[in-house]
Write a structure and sequence with these properties.
The protein is of the alpha/beta class. It has five domains: 164 residues, Alpha-Beta Complex (Lambda Exonuclease, Chain A), CATH 3.90.320.10; 174 residues, P-loop containing nucleotide triphosphate hydrolases (Rossmann fold, 3-Layer(aba) Sandwich); 73 residues, no CATH class; 113 residues, no CATH class; 218 residues, Rossmann fold (3-Layer(aba) Sandwich). The protein is 44% helix and 20% strand. The strands form four sheets. It has an eight-stranded parallel beta sheet with strand order 10-9-11-8-12-17-7-18, sandwiched between helices. A seven-stranded parallel beta sheet has the order 21-22-20-23-24-19-25, sandwiched between helices. Helix 6 crosses helix 7, helix 10 crosses helix 11 and helix 16 runs antiparallel to helix 17. It is globular.
Length: 781
Amino acid sequence: MKNELIKISIRNLVEFVLRRGSIDSRIKASVRALEGIKGHKKIQSSYSEKDRAEVTLKEDIDFEDFTLRVEGRADGILEENEKIIIDEIKTTTKNVMDIDYDFNELHWAQAKVYAYIYSKEKNLDSIIVQLTYYNVEDFGTKFLRKEYSFNELREFFYDLIEKYKEWILLEKKWIDFRNDSIESFNFPFKSYRKGQRELAIRVYKAITEGKKCFAEAPTGIGKTMSTLFPAVKALGAKETQKIFYITAKTTTREIANNTLRIMREKGLNLRSVNITAKEKCCKMEEKKCIPEYCPYANGYFDRVNIALKEALKHKEEYDLEYINKLSEEYNICPFEFSLELSNFCDVVICDYNYIFDPQASLKGILEGKAKDYTILIDEAHNLLDRGRSMYSSKIFKDDFLKLKREFKSKDKGIYNSLDRANKYLIEKRKVLENLETKSLVEKEEPSDLYGILRGFLEKVDIYESKSSEENSNLLELYFNVYEFLNICSYYGEDFTTLYKLDGNNLELLINCLDPSRILKSIMNRFKSVIIFSATLLPMEYFKELYGAQEGDYSVNLTSPFDYKNKLTIVGKDVSTTYSNRKRTLPKIVNYIIECVKSKRGNYLVFFPSYEYMWMVHEEIKKREVDFSLVAQGDHMKEEEKEEFLSLFKEGGEKTHLGLAVLGGHFSEGIDLTLDKLIGVIIIGVGMPKICLERESIKEYYNSIGKNGFDYAYVYPGIIKVLQAAGRCIRTEKDKGVVLLLDDRYFTNKYKCLLPREWFFNILVESEEGIKNTCENFWKEV
């Protein structure tokens, strides 16, 4: 039987086994990545004809039951005076005269591995290793050389391999143990719910066949178990090597964690990590990842491998509590440690941005390996708008002006670069000042600005390499510009450039109209992608935007709950369009009050905007009502959200009416079961506010032959409506009323967008009949 082949790059091998030092997120680390390729090409262009650049080298090491392949590309293999030289090029912002032989152990180690492999291949007794340091700012170059015998290099190489072998054996032992448990593991409940087995089968087939699966799975199906269980089975069958469960909300990630706990309780052995945002798990007052400030960053790489071994040998679930415990014990950054753990975990639970954001923290982990991995995308209806946000970026003229004033006497290079950027934006401002709308949308990207902004980054790089002073305003603008230019690199026909005037300030927004091109390209790197939500309607819309291909699977399940337990009512005599809101306000409030009066309990009313919500709030307060009234605040803190929901913890004794906005925290991801919530009232069709950004989206889809109005306004709106309506009826025992107040629901366009099971028990009502309709429903159930 052929040995299992395990591959690792030479750089990753060296950096994992020998890593030392601290986390340092300052500019000096970033600029090397930005300018590194240019520096390499500059040095390689000076090679002679007999020298070779970018030479691929590999070495296979056979063990009893696996083969380790170490591979990489040497920057240069040179010949000089009948001697062979392995050249390793390193770009830097540091003055090369300050770099000596002890500057970086890992640089020598990487070059020595190349030297060993080449020496063995060519039967050389000795070889010269050269480190070439190139300063990307002043173009200074320094060469450091050491000559090694083949025996020295072989001893060094196999010492590295022995250390890495320990990690491989640890991992192989785990995988065998895990796969044995998966093989004997059965579905953890006595029986499948309605639709659950069908979904699980489709998911398993999609993973094993390397396809996508699109699934609309209403509340009650058990979609988390229906996707994780078959994915885990595919993992045990070696059909996938890792599972990423990605969601938009913290509450949904906790459901995934709980699902894995249930599976473990039934005998499954599985490693999982829940990646928490850096802002939430950082222990320091300021989020500065520099060794001088943060003790968890200082010396992080000296201690992280010891902490990793501790975790891998003694634990399977790596939640924030456990990560924080080890973080304190070993004095390491909890966020970075969670990313380290994801390398060794079978299931990684995280937010969308770790996979799709251009600044994603997991990019290094996924590089080259995603083709063997599976993504489960929960709440997939949210990904499109999140994608637009991830691939849009803005800068403001005043940010350049303020910093320009500060640097007038500090640094001429930075001052001049800021002045050029400010003048460019002033010229655009002059154009807008003559426009009635004070705004402008252009299809062309602002390519004339790119060189100016790159010049600013270069000047800051030089300044930072010499200065010991920390300037938070400078760093903030630096990274904003860096991100802006990164987003601009994706610019295409599915982007626009938007200029908006606010007083004397100018906003320049690179606006992603349709992220599907980018999202699809990322999804296509993975072996399989499972796209699911309780509201994946209209299905064809999502299949098109997320790149469905012939042979991909789709499943549209109906609710497993008894349709008689839910009454859906459409108020056909109400208009909620902006121009009609004041006129129909009394009627809206009458509907709400009569619905709430029909049965004591908890109700939520959802609105398309805060402005509309507060209009209704003030009108209700004028009436004589016997229920408590609470409204969602803008930018609520976590404790304020908890306080809002605390009114809904118990039902039946009193009536509580909560007012909230569609698409907000309370319209998705909250579970109010049984009598904690007995009614949801939705005002309007959820349509986003008309604005320049949305109008640009509409025009873009029109230009490619789609119904731009539907894509920009109707579909995003109805998705919010369906999510909010889904807060009512969370279990088979729940009973409740969903009241839709807008005459547009009575049109064919909206009828075809509502879930088909709603029509089993849907009534079209007028204001006069709402009280009797609701009371009769409650009597019958």
